[in-house]
Amino acid sequence: MNIKIYTMYFVPEFGSAPILMNELATYLASRGHNIKIITTFSRQRKESNYKRFSFTTEQRDGFSITRFWTVAWPGPLGRLLAWNIYVFWCMLDIFSVRKDDILFLRLPPLQLGLFGILAKKIRRIKVILDVQDIHPDLAIESHILNNPLLIRISKVLEKLVYKSADLIIVISEGFKKNLLNKGVPPGKIRVVPNWADTGFLRELPRNNHISEKFSLGNKFVIMYSGTVSLSNFLSLERILEVADLLRDNPDILFVIVGEGLKKESLLKKANKLNLPNVRFMPFLPYDDLPYLLASSDILLVPLDTDKAEISVPSKLYSFMAAGRPILCMANRESETARIVGETNCGVCVTPEDVSRIKDIIQELKNSDETRKSMARSARAYVLDNFSKEKILKIHDDLILSLQ
Hints:
Helix content: 40-55%
Strand content: 15-25%
CATH topology of the largest domain: Rossmann fold
Strand order of the largest sheet: 3-4-2-1-5-6-7-8
Number of helices: 15
CATH class of the largest domain: Alpha Beta
Distance between the termini: 9 Å
Number of strands: 14
Order of helices and strands: EHEEEHEHEHHEHEHEHEHEHEHEHEHHH
CATH superfamily of the largest domain: Glycogen Phosphorylase B
Shape: globular
Structural class: alpha/beta
Number of domains: 2
Radius of gyration: 21 Å
Largest sheet: 8 strands, mixed
CATH architecture of the largest domain: 3-Layer(aba) Sandwich
């Protein structure tokens, strides 16, 4: 089958989205599908070979990639502009869409659904939406979108986008419930969680070349690795408050690895508190990720309380695959909290309960056996339920069902 995957971010871009989409494309190509990726240049393109072009094409791993230029400005307005420029390029790409193509659109941006609507009307093709965040809900809850007229327009757009799609893949039951409440027919929706590469992300020794390089070996490390985003920023702020309460424990270190829309705000708060036990690090090369996660004693999965129903962090499965206990900061009624509780892979607490988070960290620090038990449970559950091979086959079967 001819499958065109439209995704804002793709390797060598950092983050989970580029990696997951690369793994999906590679798998589908290995199954004999003709795969084309339509994406953007990496935001780190000043270090790349792309900076002099408005678009390029390339071949890798059995599929083709078309990359378009867009802005890489920080902040919500910069992100919105980048999304809209990308959607503009996708609209122009409609002339390359053939009648036998299947379009796989990774949302956000929600505006990408407009391209799906147009392509469906002109080319009569099948459209799959892969919904990773519920917009405009997330923007509204984060107070990024607060103009009543723009909110109404966004909700009309959302309804049209879902109505036009042939298949909508969501990553959790909570997402499905959200769409059902908006009138999306249940027959269109399939719940397919994101996956973890359990061969790549695995249990490794606590002391390794990464822990040695960053002097983490003699510390009890509580680590977050990922994007500092609209869905976890407030929870990460609470972690800084926990660090403040534990500043007199010199052997406890909080490590925040990554970039994102809200990182600068987080850095400002950390500097204001003058925390000696918090360290910020940039993303490391992807090949170092298993060793980075292995350098931790506890891995953080932060999810702001009011985002719990409209965001499920895919990093949960990656962290579980790494064989480390999970400290989940989320509404106890959320699906993320349910998974952590049912699998006994960690502890879940509401982000606002800073004192309890501090106590949990101290309790886990003092119990090696509890941490080992949680780590074993985490790894076993991912192997049974969220392995790359299992979830990618589900995607392939769903795509084939549209023939």
